[in-house]
Amino acid sequence: MRIAIGGFLHESHSFAPLPTGWGEFVKPGGFPPLQKSATLLGVLRPTSCPAAGAIMVAEQEGIAIAPLAWGFANPAGPVTAEAFERIAALLVAALSDALEDGPLDGVYLDLHGAMVAVGFDDAEGEVLRRVRAVVGPDVPIAASLDPHANKTVAMVRYADVLVPFRTYPHIDMKPAGAQATRLLLRMIREKRRPAKAFRELDFWTPLPGQCTMVAPMAEVMAERARLAEAAGVWELGFCFGFPYADFPGCGMAIASFADTDEQAAQAADALARFITAKEPEFALGVVEAAEGVRRAMEGAGSGPVVLADTQDNPGGGGHGDTTGLLAELIRQGAQGAVLAPMNDAEAAAACHAAGEGATITLDLGGKSDGAPLRVTATVERLSDGRFTLTGPMGKGNPADLGPSALIRVAPGVRVIVVTRKMQGHDQALFRFIGVEPAEQRIVAVKSSVHFRADFQPIAQEVIVVAAPGPVVADPAVLPFTNVRPGLRLRPGANR
């Protein structure tokens, strides 16, 4: 038996200020860089990426692997036409080469599911269409998805099974890739494909309300697991949607795969009813930055207060460089506070040029929104920005954030400045430059939910705050023009 393994991942924010080009896939920060067939297996095998789970299962079962291409870029604006066509071409060309070497029994693809590219609003649907066109109708295709996928009719049509992660924070990426591959091998061995049912829900949920560690999403995912045990069900996948993509396929969706059409439909409909009944509970709020900082300064306990700068989340399309929360920490005179990561290549270069111990004036951050913060900073420590992630989400993944610096911008406030953006979801992002998060009074991270996996266990309190940034806590305020009619852009409300 021989299967192909490849991937193409991006989460695209239609209104983010900066597009996603080829370079963002070549050097993506906290994930492996773009891989071609010769290096894919060796680079991805030790990571937490979904493709690593596919590789693991195939190798455990003695399945021959035809590696294709794999690329990831951090969330930002839509993928440029050049980047999409080049990476899709790499993937399809490697698939063609693999077929030249002999028949393929199946294809596994590591996809995100929320990629928008110039020319293709449903970019993953287009990738799957191209792969299906090359391998033909008789070769099964399985894919893993991020649960923030905007799952579409085309994705369900061209793939035979789709397996989203079950968690947010995403601590089961590798298991999802493994499960998709097990189902692929089942299709090959049993020489059959499951029946499909696809259901779209008619309301959106904001990112903070999608966390599977708390209600209501924890209850939804428990019910999903229960329904997935029904007779004949192969996979019951629920995608929460990424509510920043301006196209008709954006939103929450369910895809069920089972022995029969009836079994698939019953599982999908039951989960849809359960989620719909929970709609009012998804409307979880955040606090303004000033209130969050005030509460953090009042906190006193066995661990730090963690502030999540949700609207500048690099994992949702933010650039990781807005300064609203930092300015508030300085204004209120916070003590023992560290903010990370601040994505500012120019400031990081200036710190390295000045050297450790130097005091310099910086226009910090604000490169994406034109609102930098002028600070007088002391350079406390410098780094090349290379380290390995250790947290539940990214353990084993290589990080290369470029020249980085730890700077003090006020008596009680420090900032970790990096050259390439990364979401603040891993304590290694502090430790690589000599800061132990558990020893701080206030830890500020640019993240919406992923930080909870590694930081919630050390926190005396978690506060999600809204400072200026593109990943707005309430997506309904954005100027959507292409979402499908009748979709409620916030729980319990009409457009």
Keywords:
9-stranded mixed β-sheet; 495 residues; 2 domains; alpha/beta
What is the structure about, briefly put?
Helix content is 29%, strand content 22%. The chain is an alpha/beta fold and 495 residues long. It folds into two domains: 2-282; 288-472, no CATH class.
Task: Give a description of the structure.
- With 495 residues, the protein is α/β, with parallel strands linked by helices.
- The chain has two domains: 2-282; 288-472, no CATH class.
- The protein is 29% helix and 22% strand.
- It contains 14 helices and 19 strands.
- It has helices at residues 22-26, 40-44, 50-60, 81-100, 123-135, 153-158, 173-190, 217-227, 261-277, 289-298, 324-331, 345-354, 428-431, 452-455, and strands spanning 2-9, 64-72, 106-111, 141-145, 161-164, 195-200, 233-239, 253-258, 287-288, 305-309, 337-343, 359-364, 373-383, 386-388, 398-400, 404-410, 413-418, 442-445, 461-466.
- It has a nine-stranded mixed sheet with strand order 9-19-10-18-11-17-16-13-12, covered by helices on one side. The protein has a five-stranded parallel sheet with strand order 2-1-3-4-5, sandwiched between helices.
- A hairpin with an 8-residue loop joins strand 12 (359-364) and strand 13 (373-383).
- Helix 3 packs across helix 7 (173-190) and helix 8 (217-227) packs antiparallel against helix 9.
- The longest helix has 20 residues, at 81-100.
- It is globular and about 65 Å long.
